[in-house]
């Protein structure tokens, strides 16, 4: 699951395209299937979204939650692909994008009535 935060006046107009860019990177780098898009957008009022100096109102936070297993180089490749494609396709400067990958053990995930470590028919690989 991916959660994206930003000031609503800046985030709302780009969220469909941003979702496409994020999912495209997830597919290209992690091999995620087309139907595994799980994005949650949190458009915020300006007074509720504090961010570091040197950023514009386009500042966007992307939190990627995923099961543990991807190699550090794979995770770094994903982050770099996101920066590159977001800048290229949405003209959002890297200084205005913050990306965090949060890994949890498979037993800490629950979906389709089971935990992630019990699942044996995923259509993508976790250990890449």
TrEMBL record:
Membrane-crossing residue ranges in chain numbering: none
Superkingdom classification of source: Bacteria
InterPro entries per UniProt: Tauto_MSAD (IPR037479), Tautomerase/MIF_sf (IPR014347)
Database matches in SUPFAM superfamilies: Tautomerase/MIF
Protein name (record): Tautomerase family protein
